[in-house]
Amino acid sequence: MTTQSFHPPERTLMGPGPSDVHPRILEALSRPTIGHLDPVFVEMMEEVKGLLQYAFRTENRLTLPVSAPGSAGMEMCFVNLVEPGDQVIVCKNGVFGNRMQENVERCGGTAILVEDEWGSPVDPAKVEEALKANPDAKVVAFVHAETSTGAQSDAATLCGLAREHGCLTIVDTVTSLGGTPVEVDAWGADAVYSGTQKCLSCTPGLSPVTFSERAVEAIGNRKTKVQSWFLDLNLVMGYWGNEGGAKRAYHHTAPINPLYALHEALVILREEGLENAWARHARMHEALKAGIEAMGLSFFVDEAHRLPQLNSVTIPEGVDEARVRSRLLEQYNLEIGAGLGPMAGKIWRIGLMGHSASATNILNCLGALDAVLSDEGAAIQSGRAVPAAMAKLGNG
Known about the structure:
By secondary structure, this protein is of the alpha/beta class. It has helices at about 25-30, 40-55, 70-80, 95-105, 125-135, 155-165, 185, 215-220, 235-240, 255-270, 275-295, 320-330, 360-375, 385-395; strands at about 10-15, 60-65, 85-90, 110-115, 140-145, 145, 150, 170, 190-195, 205-210, 310-315, 335, 335-340, 345-350. It has 2 domains: about 25-270, Aspartate Aminotransferase, domain 2, CATH 3.40.640.10; about 275-395, Aspartate Aminotransferase, domain 1, CATH 3.90.1150. α1 (about 25-30) runs antiparallel to α10 (about 255-270), α11 runs parallel beside α13 and α12 (about 320-330) crosses α13. The mean pLDDT is about 95. Keywords: Aminotransferase, Pyridoxal phosphate, Pyruvate, Transferase.
């Protein structure tokens, strides 16, 4: 066998992530690699921190990208804030609430579960009840935008309840950052993590995080060592620096070119403007929604709690959903996502994230889905989806 260079096909990525990567970001990846302690690179690191503060809507000094994907950002929040014996209220309304519970237990904490149906937001009344019943709880953890269902929870209310009861908050914004309002300071959130491969249109592999002064104080007052050496913020900040211009100490070799890509992604976000990015995602969702409903399909999540950038569409009865996804990939180079856990076989997850949230992608997706479902004999209203979406886009 002769080993050859790998040349992937060009796909349109409209699943739950990664999303299409902006061409400017791909170009940024190809720029010359320099040392991770090079003064020029350190200057760029400072710019990345400032741009992330803009994206998160925060003045938190401790804001940086973790050199690993969103799951590591999640783990960084938990291992730094949760010590053995701590009680943590974990809100579960999908896959990623389960992962939060796993993190608490691996840190030696006790997870107090607040559970809601998949597809529903976290119920603030249940959280308040749990806070009253567990006055020693240290942290409330919840997912703002649940990627497994496309449901969005009320972060401002949940963070407010936690503060009223003297709790810190850990908030997952992996799918929301850059796509729907994330207001870290206005919410009063304490430890917030995200990913680069969703609404930021960047490649996977980095996790933006931000920590409030309350969280920094709690980390400084720990009684035990952080269980992870790599994710210990006391060590990581020696490299990233709490203050601009602080001397960097070697901790790890940063992923230099991916950080170029993140910098470019955040520059693009700043150029568009956060509010404009949020409005674009909402507008594109309305166009997709018009087409999906004109086809005769429906959404899994109630409209009031639905994420515009992650759309869970109920699969028509009698349709082989895996075969449909396979045909979309093979015949149209189009990727959409399957359901997870109890939603497997029941929903498709169609992403409209970052660079993927475009009129061209929506019309191509609807046309391809219409053609494949019609050929599979699904009971849909064929030929109506694209005109409905076009009419909505025309009004935009």
